[in-house]
Amino acid sequence: MEKNKVVYIHRNPTNNEVFYVGMGNKRRPYSKYRSVFWKRYVKKYGEPVIEIVESNLTKRDACESEIALIELIGRRGKRKGSLVNLSDGGELGLNTMINIGVMDFNTGEIFNTSTEAAKYYGVKQSHLSNH
Description:
Blueprint: E1 5-11, E2 18-24, H1 36-45, E3 49-57, H2 59-73, H3 93-98, E4 102-103, E5 110-111, H4 114-121
C-alpha cells in the first residue's frame, strides 16, 4: 500500500486558530481549490499558515486521522468548533456534501432541512435564497 498521503491544518494568520483540516497528496495543503466558505475566510483573515500534521500515510490512515482531527477540533457549521470544513472528513466528504439541506455561506451554518433554516432566520422557506 502506498504511503504518500499527508494530513494538514490551516491556521488563521492573525490568531493562530486552526480553521481547516485536510488530507491528500503532498501538494494538496497548498491548493487554493476550496469551498466558498474557505475562500471567504481567507479573504477576511489572510493567507493561512500551513502545517503538515502527519505524512507518509496510506489513504486509509490519512482519512482516519483527518476524521479524528475534525471531530476533536469541531466544525463551525455544527456549532462545535472553529473549522470551516464542510464535511466530517475522510471518504465521507462527498456524501456529506450531497446531504446538506441548507448552508449559510456567510457564516458556514448548516441546517438539515430548509424548514429548520427558515425557523432559525424567522423567514418563509421560499425566502431562504435571499438570506
